[in-house]
Amino acid sequence: MRRRRWHLSAAIAVLVSGVLGAWTLTAVFAAESPSPSPGASSLPGDASSGAQVFGSAGCSSCHGSSLEGGIGPKLNPIQKLPGVENPLDPAYLQTTIRSGRSGDPGFAQPMPAFGPSQLPDKELQDVVAFIIAQNQQGAAGLGPVELARANVFWVTVAISLLVLATWLLARYNMRWVAQRAAARREREQSR
Description:
The protein is mainly alpha-helical. Helix 1 packs antiparallel against helix 6 (about 145-190). It is about 60% helix and about 0% strand. The chain has two domains: about 40-140, Orthogonal Bundle (Cytochrome Bc1 Complex, Chain D, domain 2); about 145-190.
């Protein structure tokens, strides 16, 4: 009977280790999918000037200084909103900045319109170029694959530690139960 328990424990340990190992390896060796974005030569304006305009025009108050979102949607990586086929299309970005946008789920405040008096055409093109260029460079902070790898690694570590703690507690508990049973038998024999 003791031998069967050992085989069962070993089989469970190998199975859990195998699943965690496969899960980790899948995330570590996952290929990053290429991002469908236009080439740098097709930018409608100057991205470096657009970065300055983005900060000074008040865009960063809603979309974050690193385009991470907040009151407004994330712009890096750009958040795909309902009814938008290609959120990195320069014409779509220009229209959205000029005309504004409202009614998107998850955002209480609508995107305000920035008319030519607030944002001249050249500055508008520079901001659009900045948003597209930032998306071509990749997401701020960790990309999706790096984030997934980090998450899988730490979840795997946590699960491994929980399995180890459970195993140690079970062994301790079984020893304690065995000691209590031996003490009870000893008391019954001494009576």
